[in-house]
Design a protein that fits this description.
The structure holds 2 protein chains of 2 kinds. By secondary structure, chain A is mostly helical. Chain A is built from 11 helices and 6 strands. Chain B is 41% helix and 19% strand. The chains are: A mainly alpha, B alpha/beta.
Chain lengths: 270, 302
């Protein structure tokens, strides 16, 4: 008599490899003739359900390459990258990197970055809820301390840097009709430019903002727990005309900050 | 050696859903439900879809929980697997149980995880003395950890195993006996599995230990054929409940009176109105069954 752990291992192998022989234990009806189509229901369920999870998370990526291409790409990915937990909102973190190395998609060099942006949207969608601070949070600080303050950034925030206009490409694909201007966005020779994105969910809706290179540098530094002064310095290195007051108020008006504090006083706050 | 199971006479939270119709809660319907507050008994969710830290899923579920009882119906504990349920996953479920205080917690007689990872499907197991003990131990661990009685759902299956030496109903009865768990009777799964394995669904229903059932599921399935041209039904949850399943459902509740009943529609999700109408059909049958049960009680007294 074969033990259940061994049968389960055999069934698992047969599920992962569609060419694998079916386990001897698997039976259809009393006479045990040809259970292949029956067993394939499980193979299909596994493959299709994971493809559908990826479709839900990467809808613009799918729109760009079309349903059939996406299905092939998602199937190849999921075959070698089964989820490591039953929490499907965590599935697909490695998909953008997989797309980058997926040979049939080499002609679409921006595709992986669009997928990165979509993954950032999923992270933002499910991130912890926090009420953003308003700019009044600064009122409690002496002016001399302002360069030393640190911000705790909203947990929904991701910053995406791309050689391609990812934000414009993503926005263009929110429309039903895909016109010629989208194709131009995706074509280096007709003026494609690099873009950086802020993805954030201050309240219920996930928002995507396009950032200037200096603001990207500024926010990256703050996210790395640099002080306001250090972050400004990094931004000025990128762009000497970096607008300090506008970027400071932008932190609050866009819901980016949840706690403002002086590092020395860290324990006193929140 | 079989490990001793914990004493299931200990007091645990049991299923206390209202004996009305409910539906599986879908993101597409959050706004409709919050704005119109429909007259419906309860909602069911897969806890796995609410395991993010925050965001719209928790926002809407919190609002809906203010007005309706909630049932948590897990798909990820892999109770039928050969290894114990993941501690991490039990902990994630416990967080949701504490937060939403569900009226019921249920899972499947199936497995979904193995060394390679999570298959995102409810997979079949042989029904043997060995798996009966394994499943009982897993249910015991879960019930002890959550402090709740679990309802175990009968599966839809497409294949069976040569090793099986239990009938499904006997297997479920034995698990109820060993663990004190309850059962979730999925009438569509009965129809699907009985058709696929050429058994009689009516006699399955008649033999089912109805006294252990805390909840009923109804759903739609997709018809296909196997390699030999025999009917092969697939539990797709992508359409209306068919008439034969409604008839089987009426047979079930005519035996035992009203039981909380869920319409499951997870794929090709229809508009709220269509789903609600489907639930109201179950609600009418539950009301009729309640009246019939009262009459029978009255007749016995008279």
């Amino acid at each position: 008599m074969i033990e259940w752990p061994d049968i389960q291992s055999e069934v698992s192998r047969a599920l992962q490899n569609s060419d694998a022989k079916l386990p001897d234990s698997v039976r259809s009806l009393e006479d045990n003739k040809r259970p292949l189509k029956r067993f394939n229901v499980y193979r299909n369920n596994v493959a299709l359900s994971l493809i559908n999870v990826l479709k839900d998370t990467f809808p613009v990526t799918e729109k760009i390459v079309g349903e059939d291409f996406f299905k092939t790409m998602a199937r190849d990915f999921s075959r070698d990258n089964l989820p490591q937990s039953p929490v499907m909102i965590e599935y697909g973190a490695e998909f953008p990197a997989f797309i980058k190395n997926f040979a049939p998609a080499y002609s679409l060099p921006y595709l992986s970055d669009v997928a990165r942006l979509e993954w950032a949207r999923t992270i933002a969608y499910n991130a912890a809820d926090h009420t953003p601070q308003s700019i009044e949070a600064l009122a409690g600080f002496n002016e001399a301390d302002i360069p030393n303050i640190c911000f705790i950034i909203h947990p929904s925030v991701s910053l995406i840097q791309s050689d391609w206009p990812v934000v414009s490409i993503w926005q263009a694909h929110q429309r039903e009709e895909i016109d010629e201007s989208i194709r131009n966005l995706m074509n280096k020779e007709t003026g494609a430019k690099s873009e950086t994105a802020l993805v954030i969910r201050p309240h219920l809706d996930v928002l995507i903002h396009s950032l200037s290179p200096s603001t990207y540098e500024f926010l990256s530094a703050l996210k790395d727990v640099k002080t306001f002064g250090e972050a400004v310095e990094k931004a000025l290195n990128i762009d000497p005309a970096f607008d300090i007051p506008a970027n400071l108020s932008g932190l609050f008006s866009n819901g980016i900050v949840i706690v403002t504090h002086l590092p020395e006083n860290h324990t006193e706050l929140r | 050696m079989n490990k001793p199971l914990s004493d299931h006479k200990v007091e645990r939270v049991k299923c206390h859903l209202p004996k009305r119709a409910g539906v599986g809660l879908k993101g597409q319907h959050y706004e409709d439900i919050c704005s119109s507050k429909p007259d419906i008994g309860w909602f069911e969710v897969h806890p796995e879809n609410y395991m993010g830290a925050g965001g719209p899923p928790h926002h809407y579920l919190t609002r809906i929980r203010e007005d309706y009882p909630i049932s948590l119906h897990g798909v990820g504990l892999s109770i039928g697997g050969s290894t114990p349920p993941s501690k991490d996953h039990m902990a994630r479920i416990k967080i949701l149980v504490d937060r939403y205080q569900p009226a019921s917690f249920s899972e499947h007689l199936a497995w979904s995880s193995h060394e390679a990872g999570y298959f995102n499907d409810l997979l079949p197991l042989p029904l043997t003395e060995q798996t009966c003990q394994t499943v009982s131990e897993h249910i015991d661990q879960i019930q002890t950890y959550l402090g709740r009685t679990l309802l175990l759902e009968n599966p839809s299956t497409y294949v069976e195993f040569t090793e099986s030496d239990y009938e499904e109903i006997e297997f479920l009865k034995e698990i109820v006996k060993r663990t004190g768990c309850g059962l979730l009777l999925d009438v569509n799964n009965v129809y699907v599995s009985c058709t696929n394995h050429q058994r009689n669904p009516e006699s399955y229903i008649d033999k089912f230990p109805i006294e252990a059932v805390g909840e009923i599921h109804l759903g739609g399935h997709a018809p296909d054929e196997d390699d030999l041209g025999n009917p092969l039904l697939i539990d797709a949850h992508d359409r209306e409940v068919i008439e034969d399943v409604w008839t089987l459902y009426e047979r079930t509740i005519s035996k035992c009176g009203p039981i909380p009943t869920l319409i499951e529609w997870d794929n090709d999700v229809p508009s709220w109105d269509v789903l609600y109408a489907e639930a109201m059909r179950a609600e009418q049958l539950l009301k009729a069954s309640a009246v019939q049960t009262m009459r029978q009680a009255h007749d016995r007294v008279a």
